[in-house]
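@here heads up, posting the sequence + SMILES for the S-adenosylmethionine run so it's all in one place. Ping me if the SMILES looks off, I pulled it from an old spreadsheet.
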Amino acid sequence: MSNAEYLLGANQSEFERLQFQHSVWKSNTDAFFGRLGVAKGWNCLDVGAGPGFVSFDLRDRVGESGSVTALEPSSLFLDWFSEQVKQKQWTNVHLINGTAEEAKLPSQQYDLIFARWVIAFVPEPDKFFKQLLSALKPNGIIAFQDYYYEGLSLFPHGGAFDRMADMVRAYYHTSGGDPYITGKIPAWFRQNNLQTIDYSPHLYAGGPESPITEWAHRFFSTHIQHMVDKQVMKQSEGDAMLADWLEHRKNPDALFFSPMVVDVAGRKL
Ligand SMILES: C[S@@+](CC[C@H](N)C(=O)[O-])C[C@H]1O[C@@H](n2cnc3c(N)ncnc32)[C@H](O)[C@@H]1O
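bot reply: prediction finished. Complex structure tokens:
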């Protein structure tokens, strides 16, 4: 997959959105790593690492004795991360410029293979999964945080935004992605001799000034227009949804509910 094909774009504005996104969802990812027992000495692969925000956190956990490899197709994101790695003088953080489907990964190398918000975008997720599996050590863990795209809503109901979850799901389909991808993963685990060790859905909610609402704003303020451009909806529908969103942001009693993000992890038997 070339950078141009990543649905949300590999550019400066997406970099900033990912940075803010990490500040909002980091505690959720940290809690997942805590449950999985990620510890000093582990060798980890962060797939679709973006600018490496999760890779930083993994490096903190695995310390000097472990290693972190960030696999990412966007040079823009990877160059930024490479600069940070140099500044920190880390010698056990490695970068691979490529996709999970095409990269040459070492066989049975990693204790943990992790991908947050990546597999829902890819058109051949089973190929993506199988490629990664061969790089996992026996007894190693492969883990995903991604959507089961339910739950997205605004309260009070009744406006144009009520149809937004359908629109976002259709937007994912335009690039061959699957907004319900985490529903498929336990079956893949069973078929490939992995044991499901974690399956936990999470969603956040908050008022108009909350970080979770600001997170959503950074998505909708850009991507409603992209959805229109990709003919997921008409311009008039997009305009009505954005107007409804902005009205709710002015209402101090309004609530935003995020879509559901599922933590799913399997151990290779
Ligand atoms: C929404 S961002 C998530 C970045 C990071 N995982 C995080 O949580 O901050 C998705 C990333 O996946 C990368 N990506 C897209 N398709 C990929 C593929 N087939 N293999 C590996 N990475 C991919 C994109 O370039 C982008 O950086």
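MO: Residues 1, 6, 10, 18, 22, 47-50, 53-54, 71-74, 77, 99-101, 116-118, 121-122, 128 surround S-adenosylmethionine (CB under 6 Å).
MO: One more: The first strand starts at residue 43 and ends at 47.
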